[in-house]
Amino acid sequence: MNRVQTSIADRLPLLRRRQWMIQAIRSFFDARGYLEVETPYLVKTPGEEVHLHPFHTVYETPQNKNYNFFLHTSPEFAMKKILAEIHHPIFQLARVWRNKEGGSTHLPEFTMLEWYRPECLLHELMDETELLLKRLFPPQFIYNDIIMDFTKPFQRLTIEQAFKYYVGINILDMPENAEILAYEAKTELRKNETWEDLFFRILLDRIEPFIGREQPTFLTHWPISQAALAKPDPSDPRVALRFELYAGGLELANAFEELTDPNIQRKRFMHDRQQRRKFYPDMIEWEIDEEFLEILNDLPLCSGIAMGVDRLVMLATGVINIHDIVWK
Questions:
Q1: pTM of the complete model
Q2: Strand pairing of 55-60 and 232-233?
Q3: Where are the domains of the chain?
Q4: Count of CB atoms situated within 10 Å of the CB of 226
Q5: How far is 19 from 51, CA to CA, in rounded Å?
């Protein structure tokens, strides 16, 4: 059954809070010396993540030539190209599009906050992210019957620690084999379920409901296979320098200490393309972004993050349906 949405007039107090938060986000980055950038939404390469479905369109030129274009799923590639040239911290409040998404916390078109900071390690990006949220939210508030406490430092929990505590297994000491993971996690392997599918099912069912509740949680150091654009941890090659941020039962952000090796990145892209052809054989293919691979040689040591603005507004206003805090 389709949900009946209230009128814009009825939701105006929520939308005013949205406006205030966007203004506060801009003020935060302005005060820290960031440049706000704008990158194209219509691109030839929408991204390389296996399970993201881009919206496709055709550009018809005045000379009657046709070219495949896509609405981007993230401004990441374009923003890194800028960063490689200017080596200066940048941010963007961008509209992004992801097909086959919907529900109470997902929209096919939504607003993404992305920022990239040169000479920034992953733990420093966590510090900055925590500071931003503490500027946007009161010290304590209630969301979805949970008392959120932003007065304390945000929790930092590795994937390895989370699986040990909530599932009782050492995920990093095991081969990426679905049958072994199902046995160790004491769960039934579903038909055609891959290791990655099972990994995320366990994460969704047995870990995510218990983290980021009273205080936000950074879930860090993901298996290297789950971070296609992140740098490997030099102290542990099994994991990548990646974190996700959870608060109030919502996944708010995904971040990397950025990979700058074009050879490793190309290999990851080719692997992802093989996986995409396997899982989605009817999906239109696009060209590899060779310009992006070339600029990785010029990309400084840096970290970057993508944060869902709509979910931030949900958390701030107390609503549990994302449709209540968008202008439609």
A1: 0.95
A2: unpaired
A3: 8-154+215-325
A4: 16
A5: 31
